[in-house]
Amino acid sequence: MLRMKKEIELIIEEELGKDCPSFVRDEIFENVQKLSPLDGILSILPLPITKSAKVIVRNIVKTFYPKISKINVVEIQKQSEEFLSMESRVVDNSKSQNLVKRKFAVNKESAQTYITSLTATTTTKNELTNSLGLGFDWGGGVKVSGSDEVKSAIDKSLQQEYSISETKKINLEDEIIVEVQPQTRTKIFVHWKLIWQHGIVKVLDSWKREIEIPFKICSKITFDQEVIDE
User: Fold this and answer.
1) Residues 6+ apart with CB under 8 A from 122
2) Hey, which residues does 197 pair with through a beta bridge?
3) Are 190 and 106 in contact (CB under 8 A)?
4) CA 189 → CA 91, 125, 148, 158, 161, distances in Å?
5) What is d(CA 58, CA 47) in angstroms, rounded to the nearest whole number?
6) Rounded CA gap, 141 and 131, in Å?
7) pLDDT grade, residue 167 (50/70/90)?
8) Which of 92, 132, 145, 184 shows the smallest number of beta carbons within 10 Å?
9) pLDDT per residue as tens digits for the range 192-228
10) What pTM value is reported for the model?
């Protein structure tokens, strides 16, 4: 039985890695012991378990591959800015002796997007867009099974939290009022920028391990106004 257990341990390490937690190993052994002795797995003979029995054990072990069990989206009190574009207007009052006032309508639109920065113990930081091409490692060389499901789950969590869709836009419409002095030529620059709200996606797997995936979502558009007199 001891030799059999050692062989099962080897299969576990081959499939799940050496960092497979003890409670997962215990559960695997319990599942193996439920099998009929006719399968050759619980043979009391001091011989290696048979090839066919190893296949059965390996299939059981694979069902304990770590899977996503819970995802939480946590917003943090942090914002950042990103330059979007610039536009300019000119009011030429250089030939006038009077003060003039001008009003300009400005507007900007952008798709509402989000980005996640995946960081885990043994992975390199990756900038990932909405497609979230996750092939991440939880440490110890063990990758989460069902990566498509993981990508879909994280996407869905963020989309539901912020009501994001492929067609959703964010926009800003505003007015700029400028007073131009006599005999002055004035340039008005509008510096558009995106405001990103930061947060963390907390992902818990079936091995009770948790990783935190930072994300940022484009929450609004704003602008800075610059006026230069010539």
Assistant:
1) 137, 139, 140, 141
2) 79, 217
3) yes
4) 11, 36, 45, 35, 35
5) 18
6) 24
7) confident
8) 92
9) 999 999 988 888 877 877 777 788 889 899 999 999 9
10) 0.65
Amino acid at 189: F
Give the DSSP letter string of the chain: -HHHHHHHHHHHHHHH-TT--HHHHHHHHHHHHTS-GGGSTT--SSSPPPHHHHHHHHHHHHTTS--EEEEEEEEEEEEEEEEEEEEEEEEEETT-SS-EEEEEEEEEEEE--EEEEE--TTS--EEE-TT-----B-STTPBPS-HHHHHHHHHHHHHHHHT--TT-EEEEEEEEEEEE-TTEEEEEEEEEEEEEEEEEEEEEETTS-EEEEEEEEEEEEEEEEEEEE-
Of 176, 158, 180, 178, the C-alpha closest to 168 is 158
